[in-house]
Write a structure and sequence with these properties.
Layout: H1 2-20, H2 24-59, H3 69-87, H4 89-129, H5 137-154, H6 158-162, H7 167-176, E1 189-194, H8 199-211, E2 217-221, H9 224-232, E3 237-238, E4 249-250, E5 264-265, H10 268-287, E6 292-295, E7 299-301, H11 306-311, H12 313-317, E8 320-324, H13 329-335, E9 343-350, H14 354-369, H15 377-385, H16 397-400, E10 416-418, E11 424-427, E12 433-434, H17 436-441, H18 444-448, E13 454-456, H19 463-473, H20 482-486, E14 490-493, H21 506-530, E15 533-534, H22 576-581, H23 599-602, E16 605-608, H24 617-624, E17 632-635, H25 648-661, E18 666-671, E19 677-682, H26 695-701, E20 714-716
Helix pairs in contact: 3-4, 5-14, 10-14, 14-15, 21-24
Length: 717
């Protein structure tokens, strides 16, 4: 009653006020209109904001409205669901409902994850908008060292330990360890690492592991391009922001196989960063308790070594075992390991001991903090092993396995030495874990009748293309397209070099190289005339090629096996990048014995002899041009098989190719002279076919190969 009375009084008063003031009705109407406009604008603003949010998420493809769920379910079930429904409608509906729930759950998870990602982007934008303090180089280095040490101390990203509540970090960790957690701890993990520029070698490395049925494999992908290649080829990999290589292609490999014009870097920091990332990658695997056999991706695994590691006592007791650049198995046997030679980090076996983890941490710190421009990962690795007390002689079993020592037990000798900080270091046998020189040059395995586990393409001279060529020559390059082995017609020769050139010595070696390079030039001419691909003949090295001194004995000091080296690698007498740069197509000497090469090619071979020496292109075409039914033509004589092209313009064009393709050089040196070294320098190029056009004179004088050169080599000293 009181409320009603009050309301009546108020109403009467308002009516009286309106009658007393004729403008009050207009004022009330204007106020109401303004309120309506304000409410309308506010609602419009909220609607626009919501539409903008939805449009942004749809554009990012990170939000799916509820309605398309049924469409996605239909796609998942497809015709198979329809066929099942004809037989069992209830079962089909149940499967459809289950699929709908799974997809809807996935949508909710995606939506939640995308909200987290959006929040992370907003935080990053706020950080970017904040002014940053300019740091000096020393301050940046100190900050980087501090972050790296914090990261290594816990074995995880320090940000995860400081802020575990952020879901985007948890998701990042999940993605980062996905492939690592799928590895089997009861078996050795085969590991490698790669960055852009070495993808072909990574694929070849992986192909060998699959050929051997090795499934416990992981690759560290040091950039986004490598991650993409791993995904496309179903290669298990580990890659995240903490394993990112930021420099160009390292110069040891030269230009990538897929891009001969790519820029490469000689910056020491690039090599050091690769090494630090490798150490960080291995440390992660050690912290998870894996036994790891890591190798550079320019290795080829020919046999499965797991049984050897399971039964070899050295592998059981060491913290770490490493391959070597040692060239003598005899010296290795005498002292149970080449302890005074450089260890090669291209092949490492690691047991997850505390000393191994400690060494990897030290290795990574040293690589990230070194001020030496040219100190690489392998240099630092060798230096760290010899610090402090240094390497101590190989230990016996009872000295290594102290806990299980028995009185009067047999004292087995192991290839194990104590390194810095008492790390137990094993020496991987060089006849089983072979370097490029042991396998490709000395071919020790053939002399000892030993079957190696792996070869590392070291000691070569044509960068990535030289490595690939060596693997092709020994039928260890597994990733060529099938067209490489199936398509094309070919030209080669069965001619052997003059017998008088085959005695050991630098002069004969350089003469033999000149004879061989003339044969190559002629085969490339035939390839152009007959539209065939040359198969390069075998070459024997009478003198080893080396960046140090090989004279006067013509072999590297300490090598067990001396020249001649049969089936010498092509990079010992040519420059493979220059052959490719000239646009010259060819096949390796072992092409016709490769199991991948088509039988149609192997069974279609004809040996041909020329009607006369030093023919022109027209004469060659007349005699051999109609032999298109034979896939392979074998010239009995190649050194005197070509004079010139009839058209001078073709001669000049061919000479231009040869000037590029046959450009190569090598120093064969000894101590002495005013500079401390006396060198014989090969290899010169034969005269151009546009210069030597007198074919009749060549025939009448029976030109020897030496007449095609102004000089066979240069002398310096």
């Amino acid at each position: 009653h009181i409320k009603k009375s009050t309301m009546t009084t108020t109403t009467t008063t308002n009516l009286h006020h309106q009658r007393a003031n004729p403008h009050s009705k207009a004022l009330s109407s204007n106020s109401y209109s303004r309120r309506r406009k304000f409410v309308f604008c506010f609602v419009l603003f909220l609607a626009c904001a919501g539409l903008f949010e939805l449009r942004f998420l749809e554009k990012e493809k990170k939000w799916t409205p509820a309605s398309p769920v049924n469409n996605r379910v239909a796609l998942h079930l497809g015709a198979g669901a329809g066929a099942a429904g004809a037989a069992d409608d209830d079962g089909a509906f149940r499967r459809r409902d289950d699929a709908a729930r799974r997809v809807q759950d996935t949508d909710h998870e995606d939506y939640a994850r995308n909200n987290n990602n959006r929040d992370a982007r907003r935080r990053r934008r706020r950080r970017v908008s904040e002014p940053k303090k300019e740091l000096s180089y020393e301050e940046e280095e100190q900050l980087r060292k501090q972050r790296m040490e914090e990261r290594m101390a816990g074995g995880k990203d320090v940000r995860e330990s400081n802020d575990k509540s952020q879901p985007n970090h948890q998701e990042h960790e999940k993605l980062r360890v996905e492939h690592v957690d799928s590895l089997n701890k009861s078996s050795i993990v085969f590991a490698a690492f790669a960055s852009a520029g070495f993808h072909e070698f990574m694929l070849n490395w992986y192909a060998h592991t699959q050929k051997l049925n090795i499934g416990n494999v992981i690759v560290a992908a040091f950039d986004a391009e490598t991650e993409k290649v791993c995904k496309e080829n179903n290669i298990p990999y580990l890659g995240d922001e903490e394993l990112r290589y930021t420099h160009g292609v390292v110069a040891t490999g030269g230009q990538p196989l897929h891009d001969q014009n790519a820029k490469v870097t000689m910056v020491g920091k690039a090599f050091q960063q690769i090494g630090a990332l490798k150490a960080s990658f291995l440390l992660r695997l050690m912290q998870k308790g894996f036994r790891v056999l890591v190798s550079d991706c320019d290795t080829a695994w020919m046999r499965d070594p797991r049984e050897w590691f399971a039964t070899n006592e050295m592998a059981k007791y060491v913290d770490m075992a490493v391959s070597t650049d040692c060239l003598s198995y005899k010296n290795e046997e005498k002292v149970r390991g080449c302890w005074h030679d450089q260890f090669n980090t291209g092949i490492l076996f690691l047991n997850p001991t505390e000393k191994t983890k400690g060494f990897l941490k030290d290795w990574q710190v040293a690589l990230e903090t070194t001020t030496h421009k040219f100190e690489h990962d392998q240099d630092i690795f060798n230096r760290l092993l010899r610090e402090g007390a240094g390497l101590r002689p190989p230990q016996r079993l009872d000295e290594i396995d102290v806990e299980n020592r028995k009185e009067g037990a047999e004292r087995h000798e192991l290839h194990v030495a104590l390194a810095s900080k008492d790390l137990k270091l094993g020496a991987l046998p060089l006849t089983l874990f072979t370097s490029g020189h042991i396998f490709f040059i000395q071919q020790t395995h053939l002399h000892l009748n030993v079957e190696p586990f792996v070869v590392h393409t070291t000691y070569q001279f044509s960068q990535a293309r030289g490595k690939r060529q060596r693997l092709r020559e020994h039928q260890l390059w597994l990733i060529d397209a099938q067209e490489y082995h199936d398509e094309g017609n070919f030209i080669t020769t069965s001619e052997k070099p003059p017998q008088e050139l085959l005695s050991i010595g630098i002069e004969n070696h350089l003469k033999l190289a000149s004879w061989y390079r003339l044969v190559l030039r002629n085969l490339f001419a035939y390839a152009e005339i007959l539209n065939r691909i040359p198969i390069l003949p075998e070459f024997s090295c009478l003198c080893d090629r080396y960046w140090g001194n090989v004279l006067p004995q013509c072999y590297i000091p300490g090598a067990d096996i001396h020249p001649p080296y049969n089936k010498c690698p092509m990079d010992h007498v040519t420059n493979l990048p220059n052959l490719e740069r000239a646009g010259l197509n060819f096949r390796e000497y072992s092409f016709l014995t490769n199991e991948q090469t088509s039988d149609k090619i192997k069974q279609s071979v004809e040996t041909v002899s020329l009607t006369r020496q030093f023919p022109t292109d027209e004469e060659i075409r007349d005699q051999l041009g109609r032999k298109t039914d034979k896939r392979v033509l074998v010239l009995e004589t190649a050194s005197k098989s070509f004079c010139t092209f009839k058209e001078e313009s073709k001669s000049k064009a061919f000479d231009s190719k040869m000037q590029t393709g046959l450009e190569a050089g090598s120093h064969f040196c000894k101590h002495g002279g005013s500079t401390g070294r006396i060198c014989e320098i090969g290899f010169t190029k034969p005269k151009g076919v546009s210069q030597n056009r007198d074919c009749d004179r060549m025939r009448s004088e029976d030109f020897d190969f030496e007449k095609f050169y102004d000089k066979l080599w240069e002398h310096k000293g």
